[in-house]
Amino acid sequence: MKTESRVALGILSIMLVVALVGCTANAPSVSKGPVTMRVGYFPNITHSQALIGVARGDFQKALGSNVTLDPKVFNAGPSVIEAIFANQLDLSYIGPNPAVNGYVKSNGQALRVIAGATSAGAALIVRSDANIAKPEDLAGKKIASPQLGNTQDVALRAYLAAHDLKPTEKGGNVQVIPTDNPQILDLFRQRQIDGAWVPEPWATRLIVEGGGKLFLDERDLWPGGDFVTGNIIVTTQFLKDHPDLVKAWLRAHVEVTQWELANPDQAKQIANDEIKRLTGKALPKEVIDGAWSRMRITYDPISASLYQSAEAAYAAGFLKDKPDLAGIYDLTPLNEVLKEKGLPPVK
Q1: Using CA atoms, how far apart are residues 297 and 285, in angstroms rounded to an integer?
Q2: SS3 call for 283
Q3: Would you say residue 21 has pLDDT above 50?
Q4: Rounded to a whole number, what is the distance in angstroms from the first to the last CA of the chain?
C-alpha cells in the first residue's frame, strides 16, 4: 500500500472514531452493566405516575434492557426512609416531610429530592355525627393520620397548633392516632375515630364509603391551593453511581405526567387497575373521580411548600434542630430533561 493511501486510511479511521464518540455523547446515556433499580411508591393515586409508568412499562423501557426494575410498595413515607437507611431502596415516590426527616437525620448525606409528583390531594374528613363544624370542635376528639411523622400527620398537628389545640401527648385534649390508611377506614366506619387527615383516595373513600363529610380541603391552607403531596427522592449514592438512570427515570416521569394531564380518564383507569392489583380492590368510580379532582399531577417539586412543611415538622417536635435544607434538592437532571423537551425549568 502506498504511503499516501495509508495516511488517508489512518485519517479516515480517526474521523470515524471522533464521529462515533460525538454520537455517543449526544445519545441518551444508559448504564452498560446489569443494574437492579429498587423503586418505592404507594398504592395511592397521589403516586399515579409510578402506578401508571410501572404498569405500562414506561420506566422499564426508559431504563433499558440492562436494568432490572424492582418495584416495592409502601404504606407511608417513614417506612420508605427506613428502607433507604437499610440500603433497600434507590429511588422512591414519597411525601415531603419524610423526605425532610431522612435528609436531616442523615446530616444531608442520604438522599436528594429530584422532582415533584403531585400537588394537593389531602383533606381532613370527619364523621357526619361527630359534631365537628369548626376547629375548636376538634377538642376531645380522636383524629387519625396515616403514620407518625408522615406528611398528613405533620399537617394535622400544625393545624391544631394554629387553632390553640394540642394532641394529648403534648398536654392537650385532641387524641391523634397514627394508623395505616386501610385501618383508618375501618375505624371510621366503626365510629372508633371522629375524623382523619389523609391523602387521596382515602379522603374520598371516607366520604363515599364511610359516610363522612369534608371538614377541610388542605388546598385552602396554601397560596393558590398548591402544595407538594408527593415528590421523588433518590439516594445520593445511586445518583452518583447511575446519573444516567436517574435522568432516564425522570424523562419517563415527565412524559407520563404529560400523558396523564392530556388523558385523565385513561390515566384514572390504569391507576385504578394497578390499585386493584396491589391491594385486591379497585376504587369505585365515584371515589377515583372525587379524589382526582382534589389533586394536580405535576413534576414541579413546589419547593416553597416543602420548606414550610419542614418548619411545621420542627415545631411538632419531629426534628431536633431547625432544619438546614440548603442541599436537599438536586434538580439538575430534571431541568436537563425539561430543556431537552423545550419546557421551562423548575426552581
Answers
A1: 19
A2: coil
A3: no
A4: 61
Q: What cell numbers appear for 319 in the block?
A: 426534628
Q: Please state, as a whole number, how many other Cβ atoms lie within 10 Å of the Cβ of residue 158.
A: 17
- The pLDDT value recorded for residue 31 is 57
Q: With a threshold of 0.90, does the pTM exceed it? A: no
- Taking residue 5's Cβ as centre, other Cβ atoms within 10 Å add up to 9
Query: Comparing C-alpha atoms, which of 48, 17, 28 is closest to residue 267?
Result: 48
**What's the sign of the alpha-carbon dihedral 100, 104, 110, 113?**
positive
Q: In what order do the strands lie in the sheet with 111-120?
A: 67-73, 35-41, 91-94, 228-235, 111-120, 295-297
| Alpha carbon 292 to chain centroid, angstroms | 15
Query: Which residue type sits at 189?
Result: R
325 burial (CB, 10 Å; 0-12 / 13-18 / 19+) is middle
pLDDT digits (tens, 9 = 90+) for 249-288: 999 999 999 999 999 999 999 999 999 999 999 999 999 9
Measured CA to CA in angstroms, residue 307 lies from 111, 224, 257, 313, 328 at distances of: 16, 16, 24, 10, 10
Q: What is the DSSP string of 241-286?
A: H-HHHHHHHHHHHHHHHHHHHH-HHHHHHHHHHHHHHHHS-PPPHH
The residue-averaged pLDDT of 21-28 equals: 36
CA distances to 148, 154, 174, 313, 315 from 164, in Å = 21, 15, 11, 17, 13
The pLDDT tens digits of the residues spanning 39-88 come to 999 998 999 999 999 999 999 999 999 999 999 999 878 889 999 999 99
